[in-house]
Amino acid sequence: MITFWAVAAILTGVVALILARTAWVARENAEEGSPDVEIYKAQLAEVDRDVARGTISEADADTLRTEIARRLLAADAAAQKEKDNERTPMGLTVVLALLTVGGAMGLYAVLGAPGYGDMPLQARLEQMEEMSRERPSQATAQRAFISTMERPAANERHLDLVAELRAAVADRPTDLRGLALLARNEALLGNFGPAIAAQQQIITVKGEEASGQDHRDLAELMIVATGGYVSPEAEVELRQAALLAPTDPATRYYLGLMYDQSGRADRAFALWQPLFDMSTPDDPWYAPIEQQILATAERAGVRYVLPEGRGPSQEEIAAAAEMAPEDRAAMIEGMVTGLAQRLATQGGPPEDWARLISANAVLGDRDAAQTILDEARLVFQDRADALNLFARTAAQTGLQ
Predict the structure, then answer these.
(1) Tell me, what's the pLDDT at 226?
(2) What is the mean pLDDT of the chain?
(3) CA–CA distances in Å: residue 288 to residues 250, 274, 292
């Protein structure tokens, strides 16, 4: 580090000297006479020589002297004005040089990375691609995680039921319901290898009818089995899931996690930011993204600020319903006000509208809840999923 700053100081000093020398040379040039003035003086002397040689008469010489003298005075005045404009005080020159040197070093100290070599974009992208290709396999990462993890406790009855389920699936290897139950229960016991095998069998049985969720469930089991690491094998399943269900939010979260782990924070942020902005705290991917997105944005070179709170969750609303009326109103009103203002000015996903409707109903302001419900139906009139959500919200709150 000391060597770096020493070299930087020397180079900066050389630049400052060059700037100072340039300013000094410009000052000296400004002190010299104008070329036009010198030319006119030479012309006056030439007229005198022509008169002495007898090539022009004295009368013609007087006329020439008058014209040349007029031009000489004009050129001298112009040269003086230009000299005044170009002359830079040496004090100002020194101040500008110091500002240039100090400003450059100060900016680099804040924005630069002392000690780092050149990091061209193409080289960094190639390095990231190499990192991605050299990631540990699913088997390697899974063995490492399982060897250190603490298996969940299980009662004998549960173990017996899982053993019976294994036997039943072994007899009926195409039983999709049995395979799904086996995959889920093996995972609950920490038996990730059998759980993954059962989910793979589901995809095999379904063949071309396997859905994006089937592939995402398999990838999710693989990721859990490695303690959160997205292996190349899990990536294959995630990409197939994204191909079959491009808008699935869980798949988008896991793909973002894979990119983040591979050094491509830019791609991770591009997936996470719109997903986070359209999600609610009740969504399972909301909290993991919230914990990571600021660091990911910084690594991606993006200035990002977490959005303001999205209003009360269903759990908060349910807890508020059991409070004393005045306490409930005080708790919810503050959260509802912020959510209502954001939806009115910035809009938001259908889930936020549904929560605002429920919150107003809990507060007892059924007219406001009905008004918001009607507005939400109008805003999302072209989205069947949103209208279904609002229908469920209306049924839960007793609205029309």
Answers:
(1) 92
(2) 79
(3) 11, 14, 6
